[in-house]
Amino acid sequence: MTLEFTLKDPKFVSQIERAAKKAKAQDVAAYTVDLLIKCTRKALGLDGDLTVNEVAQRLNCHPNTVRNYIKMDRLAAYYPSARCLRIPLASVEALTSLTKFAA
Questions:
Q1: pLDDT value at position 53?
Q2: Contact criterion met (CB below 8 Å) for 64 and 54
Q3: Residue 44 class from Cβ within 10 Å (0-12 exposed, 13-18 middle, 19+ buried)?
């Protein structure tokens, strides 16, 4: 209900249009949908990249198992800084979908 109200709010619409122009988006409607999806994923805690410990909790395994998956190229990972390892959420979702079919 709140979402419907904010989508009809002229202030909200003008803010979206300005943000779309700033991002040089060709289609304001597509930009709005992408923005809403990102906001929803962030609100649900599904946005962004995960740490080794967060992935281990999601997979119910030891953090060393996650590190082994990375070494075996079963999980994609990167270092945004020297000592900070991050795993994209899409990589974790892909691994879980593979293991569901394998089981």
A1: 93
A2: no
A3: exposed
CA distances from 93 to 22, 28, 45, 46, 67 (A): 31, 29, 14, 11, 16
The residues with which 58 forms a beta bridge, in sequence order, are none
Which residue is listed with tokens 């943000």? 19
Average pLDDT over residues 9-34: 75
- Amino acid letter, 74: R
Tens digit of pLDDT for each residue in 25-82? Answer: 777 777 777 777 777 766 666 567 889 999 999 999 999 999 999 999 999 998 877 7
Distance set, CA 78 to CA 21, 23, 45, 85, 91 (Å):
31, 26, 20, 6, 11
49-102 CATH pick, 2.50.20, 1.10.150, 1.10.3470, 1.10.1660:
1.10.1660
**Does pTM surpass 0.70?**
no
